[in-house]
Amino acid sequence: MFFNFRRKPPLSALIPQGYIDMHCHVLPGIDDGAKNLNESLGVLEGMKALGFEGVIATPHTMGGVWPNTPQTIESSFNQVNTANNKAIHDLRYSSEYLIDDDFVNLMEQGQLIPLKDDLILIELSYFQPPPNLFEVLFELTNKGYQPVLAHPERYRFYFDSTKTFYKLKSVGCLFQLNLMSLVGHYGDDVAAMADKLLKLELYDFSGSDIHGTRHFEIFNKPVTVKNHKGIPELLEKNQFFKL
Asked: Cα–Cα distance between 147 and 4 in angstroms, integer?
């Protein structure tokens, strides 16, 4: 795959045919993603038009806000899967887990839903990291799981501490880039951090983090990051999730 990045191609041009998205919010009514079944189906159709072949839906699990369980997620997934009509050939579900007390309880109860194999998608608060983060990560890995940290480029409290990113990697964390970070959707500072992490080659996977049909117009915007050479190869790494 070749792109002339001097022309700053739109984000949509980076999506390889057969892309497997491992982070999105397309299940209806259980988090801040798709509001209803019709929107869920519209999102899936939009993903298909972009070249997505597989989708792992990852609704938030967040204590006191979206206290999802394997049962609530499966129920919402079944609604979509029944009506999907193969817009997306490979549709599965997992969750994006906020590291909080509820996560620890789910982990202790064996109630986590992996993305695939032993991979668990986690996120942090945008305000501050949990004080027991590395203790929780140690316990998670001790139970045989491997954490995948969603959008590390969005945690502004780490922007002046590159060594923390390396520390997270050293304890087994994989990193997932949000595609919309590449066009400055979350702010120029987030795009700059994504650029830096790309340069350091710290990303392992990518995800759309699409929350609804409103996000598709963002894929028409040009990429803004300078360290772009590794982007096509990074997106191809999501073939790991192919069935």
From this structure: 34
The reply to whether the predicted model has a pTM over 0.85 is yes
pLDDT of 12 above 80 = yes
The pLDDT of residue 243 is 86
Distance of CA 185 to the CA centre of its chain: 15
| Cα-based distances in Å from 152 to 43, 124, 133, 220 | 24, 9, 14, 23
Burial class (CB in 10 A: 0-12, 13-18, 19+), 13: middle
In whole angstroms, give the CA distance from residue 100 to residue 97: 8
Please give the order of strands across the beta sheet that includes 96-98: 60-61, 96-98, 119-123, 146-150, 174-178, 205-207
* Neighbouring residues of 142: CB distance < 8 A, sequence distance ≥ 6: none
Q: How many CB atoms lie within 10 A of CB 36?
A: 11
Which tens digit of pLDDT belongs to each residue from 191-236? 999 999 999 999 999 999 999 999 999 999 999 999 877 899 999 9
The CB density around residue 226, as the number of other CB atoms within 10 Å, is 13
